[in-house]
Every structure is written in C-alpha cells, then in structure tokens.
Write a structure and sequence with these properties.
This protein folds into 2 domains: about 210 residues, Spore Coat Polysaccharide Biosynthesis Protein SpsA, Chain A, CATH 3.90.550.10; about 110 residues, no CATH class. By secondary structure, the chain is an alpha/beta fold. Strands 1, 2, 3, 4, 5, 6, 7, 8, 9 and 10 form a 10-stranded mixed β-sheet that branches. It contains 12 helices and 10 strands. The longest helix is centred in the last third of the chain and has 19 residues.
C-alpha cells in the first residue's frame, strides 16, 4: 500500500517524567512514514519535570508537537489534542504505556483496506516487575469485522475493549459533540457508546501491539491504604451504565436485557467495593443503588445474562446490604 493517509496520536501527560520518554520513543520509532505521522504531547499542568521532557522530545523528533495547558485531567488533555490534530485518523496512547513499531502501519492498512471508521489492535498488560498479566480482553484468533451493535454488546457483556488507546478512529467522528467527558474516570466507555451509532464498522486485529504498563499507584488504585477511600470510578460506572441503557433503548432495542444486566453488574461492583462507613442514608447515591436493586429484583432473577452467582449476590445484598458487605469484607480479610 502506498502510504498517503495522515495519522495523529495524542498523548496526555501529567507528572510522568520517568515514563514519558519510553512512550514517545515507541511512537517515534513507528515503521509508518514520519511525515504522515504526528505525535501530539499534551502537558496537563504537570508539577514535576514533565513539561521540560515534553519540550525536549519535541526538539528531538521532527514529528512531535508539544503543547502545555492548565491541569484539567486526561479527558481535557485529550480534547485539547483533538482540537489541533491534523490527521485523517486519530489515535491515543497513555503516557505510561508503549506500543510496538508496527502498530499504526497495521491499523492504517486495515482501515484503508476495509473502509472501517474504527480499527482496533489487541493489548497486553505488563506489571511493574515486568511480569505479563492475564489478558483483560481476549484477542480474536483472526481479523474480525463487527458491527457497532455487536461491539456495544461485547462492552455490555464485559468482553469488549472500550479503550480508544487500542484504536485508530476516523477524525471526522470527533465532532464538537463527540468529545471525552471532563471530570470522569470512565471516559473512554462514555465516549465509545455515544460514538458507536456513527461508526460504520469496527475491525479488530489479533496482534497485541499495545502494551499497558500497570502501575500499582495509578488512578483508582491510589490511596488504597485509606480504608475509607472510595475511588470515584465506582460511581462513574454506575452512572454510565444508566446512560448506556438509555442509548441502547434508542439505538439497539434488541440489547435492552443485555444493557440491564450491565447495569446490575456495575451496581454489584459498586456495592462490593464501597467502604462500610459510607453505607448510610446520608449517602444518596448509595441509597439509590440499593433501592434500584430491591425494586428490580424480579427482573434480576429472570435476566438470562446474569450468572447464578451474580443473582445470588444481588439478592442477598437487596435484603441487608451493610450486613452482607461486613461478611464479605471479613471473608476477604479486609
């Protein structure tokens, strides 16, 4: 294939001085023509030496652009990158991850050959000790083409990949309304389910070209030493489950029961992680989650997509959530 398709890859960077260089080196080392491949580094108000590192990398590589902004979170940084991206296709890489040298040539080739608006590679996860972790999403055995509805179904069944980092997406899909939600931690899922109705098809490649570096101190894992700390991602996933159900009713009515199952599983996850000290009537979000499970118990018990174990957990939690959580915590030694 004669390469003529431009690609922009956006890397949000915040206090990542030790890892940003490895990430950018892996992007600058792509076997895709550098003149067609721009790398946009967005320093999101870092307070360490990341701003200097970002500028240094932009001087080192001709196709690296660096911008600096006030801290606003990963979504804000990604959106700032989208605003200035010039590529026909857009990709994203988290600044503590890295990619194989043929990732973007493989993605572009598949996108052009199939005409797909969105193409995805598979990923692996590497621990801080260098150990390969179990696959979060199982790669397909061969190149697979699926419809937006089929992808929505995999996301709702927790078997699909909502991440934009493993994907190359046609830039025209990122309209003014199609941006990452700022101030939320489940931002990829939120944007993905809103964008899917605009996508013609999704192509999934089996190659694991995206490498996630699993840091024990990042995102929802930070402050884990505080027993009363409750990562906000657990409330975000419940809210997004309700958004997903609304979108499914509008665009994929055949998936309503699957979407309801998704909402129940997200609420179960919420109830199994919330600190017992926060399970009280003053916590209105908690009260809403508990009341929803009690009100929907018949639908829960008859939902064919929930496992027997999930139904059992939801049933006993509907009776006395605080007592069951105490028992669950005791069994887990928390």
């Amino acid at each position: 294939m004669g390469n003529k398709h431009t690609v922009s890859v956006i890397v949000p960077a915040y206090n990542i001085e030790d890892l940003i260089e490895k990430c950018v080196d892996s992007l600058a080392g792509q076997d895709y023509p550098a003149e067609l491949f721009e790398i946009i580094l967005v320093d999101d108000g870092s307070t360490d030496s990341t701003p200097d590192k970002v500028d240094e990398l932009s001087r080192k590589y001709p196709n690296v652009r660096a911008i600096h902004k006030e801290n606003g979170g990963s979504s804000s940084a990604r959106n700032a990158g989208i605003d200035i991206a010039c590529g026909e296709y857009i990709g994203f890489v988290d600044s503590d991850d890295y990619v194989s040298e043929n990732m973007y040539s493989s993605l572009v080739e598949a996108a052009v050959r199939t005409g797909a608006d969105m193409v995805q590679v598979s990923r692996d996860e590497i621990s801080e000790s260098g150990e390969r972790l179990p696959d979060v999403v199982v790669p397909p055995g061969e190149e697979t083409v699926i419809s937006p509805g089929e992808h929505m179904r995999t996301l709702l069944m927790h078997t699909g990949d909502a991440s934009f980092c493993t994907k190359l997406t046609r830039r025209s899909l990122f309209t003014n309304k199609m941006r990452f939600p700022e101030g939320e931690l489940n931002e990829d899922f939120y944007l993905m389910i809103h964008m899917l109705p605009l996508v013609n098809r999704l192509v999934i490649l089996p190659g694991q070209y995206y490498h996630v570096f699993y840091r024990t101190g990042s995102n929802s894992r930070k402050k884990s030493e505080d027993r009363d700390y409750f990562p906000p991602v657990f409330t975000d996933i419940v809210r997004n489950a309700d958004v997903a159900l609304s979108l499914v009713r509008e665009n994929y009515p055949e998936l309503v029961e699957v979407a309801e199952r998704f909402g129940y599983v997200q609420r179960l996850d919420y109830l199994l992680h919330i600190p017992i000290s926060l399970m009280n009537k003053e916590n209105r979000f908690y009260e809403g989650v508990s009341q929803r499970i009690r009100a929907d118990m018949h639908k829960i018990l008859t939902n064919k997509y929930l496992t027997a174990k999930q139904k059992a957990y939801l049933f006993v939690l509907s009776l006395n959530p605080k007592a069951i959580r105490k028992l669950h915590a005791r069994i887990r030694g928390l």
